[in-house]
């Protein structure tokens, strides 16, 4: 349907009719909510009576025990040497264990907890960051799908498998915004944008927590790392963060606020200091903002050893001082630093920590145990059959494949080289990652002894092509190495083929925690291999698997087709093959800006204009804000990604030229698939506040819709702009919209605006 004045009237009429329906539905909902709330209140009262009675029986040591968490079977950080964990569990001095998995192990440990005096069950936690047994794409990849349902579904499946394996709690989602691809942990987040990041945070939490804590297929989520960890100076992990209040509130806090609003059960603080105060010891972050202003009712766990690390920071004299500072600041549980267990009771006795603070922390943790149903039955998540069924459910692999293909971003496709024909005679599959299983999983996958079910690129292609297609293979290089001895074999394979597919990028160990890199070019001599293959004159497709935006300038400028696949998980090979051979039309868009060189970092699309803006795409001359040796624009912009079809944007219409009190601006335009195949487009809405009391970014994402269209099909897309979307934190840190002109920009990427208009906000 094309957009014209006739259907404009029709839309208005439909809207009015819908309004009545909505009002009626709204009323029914209110009645339901009323009864639900009443029942909830009753349950809450019951829970409070139970927990208060239990706490009355607890000694101070037992209370401190609830605030104590140890790693069990393996470590994801430096272990603090200490006592015998099993003995401590029996003595009621452990509230939670991390890094345990499987019904057999969790049951055995829970049985130990049942030998303690008060039989308070343990909480089992694990970093289920992108899938449990079925590994999904890394979170940054999933963010590239811009598909909130798919992302929620991925977290849902992860929760089903995790909960069935006896685990109650995942340390996910990571909701740290980051604008620095040198930081190895960008792979764990949703990229650079607070709007997209907030929606993804919510989707993940809803996925993990399902129908609510206590459902047998739900796990507690944990939004981390509170706060501003993604802005580590120089992209160096664990580093300090120096940031204005304004940037903190506007860019880094929104996904955490969204997490709280979505009902996240727990939060984890962070390793960094923020403006000189370690986040773990920050009362401003944890007490004032999180538990105060945002009324967060869950509990806060420290990051691994981060309480004890306040000594290294130079913020605490010793672990006792660190424990005191952390609890006073609102950190409820101590992960692996043994600072609480060794010192809190004494600190209370000396009057340095009020018992009320310990009680509050204990109550928050016991509340979650209660909500998980562990006081009814500590073994309710321990059922071998359920575990077996869940982790071997073939349906989960189908969903993983779907999410994986949606996460792939097509960066270049000159002369429509892609998709390939399935009956191509000879294909050379080259590259160090083409037959790697481990490297498809990416960092933060849950450790399993056997990864044989991961589908490699080679296997995916093998299954896809015709019986008569011949596949040749050569690794060519090792990403960790600079030797070129494998080049000859790879070039030879290319020379015998009709088309060359090269799989390069990062090995699993090259992005992730403590994997910051100062050089984010394609590692080793992989780009030299691409050059050697290109020199054969054969058509060449480069597939880049990585945990972060990489730099590959020569490849981008010369090779005809490039697909960015990130790390896609168990179904990687099948998903990539679907895209290569046209069974899936790529629809991903970059959730993070790709710089031209490291010198442009930090880089993001929502920058300020400055008083001397430089022209786009050229080096600067004449005292403008840019570089004299390269354009200020990135290699690939936020929101960018191609498809095998083309889309046309037209007919932008705003419901009004003025936004007055109580009114929204409705934005409509028509999107048409003008190509030959069906496909999905992520249509993006950006706004710009032209003049304000604080300088505003040149563009801010405020809406998007992923739309599926058949060839020739059109759809009217609608976005609503309300006051909230125009608001920002002013100098007094008040969230307010200021009157004035707002530009409305609709496009296929942050640097590809197709339609533009404006309206005035009247106070
Ligand atoms: C990481 C956290 C993680 C924890 C437990 C820490 O090193 O920063 O994100 O949840 O370890 O594995």
Brief characterization of the structure:
The protein has 23 helices and 26 strands. It is an alpha/beta fold and 763 residues long. The chain has a six-stranded mixed β-sheet with strand order 11-16-15-14-12-13, sandwiched between helices. A five-stranded parallel β-sheet has the order 4-3-2-1-10.
Provide a descriptive summary of the structure in words.
The protein is an alpha/beta fold and 763 residues long. Among the domains are: 401-594, Glycoside hydrolase family 3 C-terminal domain (Rossmann fold), CATH 3.40.50.1700; 647-761, Sandwich (Immunoglobulin-like). Helices cover 34% and strands 18% of the residues. Helix 1 (5-57) packs across helix 14, helix 7 (194-209) packs parallel to helix 9 (254-261) and helix 18 (457-464) packs across helix 22 (572-580). The longest helix is centred in the N-terminal third of the chain and has 53 residues, at 5-57. The chain is globular and about 75 Å long. Beta-D-glucopyranose binds at residues 76-77, 98, 127, 171, 224, 303-304, 513. Beta-D-glucopyranose is lined by residues 76-77, 98, 127, 171, 224, 303-304, 513.
Q: Which helices and strands occur, and which strands form pairs?
A:
Blueprint: H1 5-57, H2 60-66, E1 68-71, H3 85-90, E2 96-98, H4 103-113, E3 123-126, H5 139-143, H6 148-164, E4 169-170, H7 194-209, E5 222-226, H8 245-252, H9 254-261, E6 266-269, E7 273-274, E8 277-278, H10 283-293, E9 299-301, H11 309-313, H12 319-329, E10 334-335, H13 339-349, H14 355-371, H15 384-391, H16 394-407, E11 409-413, E12 426-430, H17 438-441, H18 457-464, E13 470-474, H19 487-495, E14 499-505, H20 526-534, E15 540-545, H21 553-558, E16 561-564, H22 572-580, E17 647-654, E18 658-659, E19 665-673, E20 679-689, E21 700-709, E22 714-721, H23 723-726, E23 728-729, E24 735-736, E25 740-749, E26 752-761
Parallel strand pairs: 1-2, 1-10, 2-3, 3-4, 5-6, 6-9, 12-13, 12-14, 14-15, 15-16, 18-26
Antiparallel strand pairs: 7-8, 11-16, 17-19, 19-22, 20-21, 20-25, 23-24, 25-26
Helix pairs in contact: 1-14, 2-13, 6-7, 6-15, 6-16, 7-9, 12-13, 16-22, 18-22
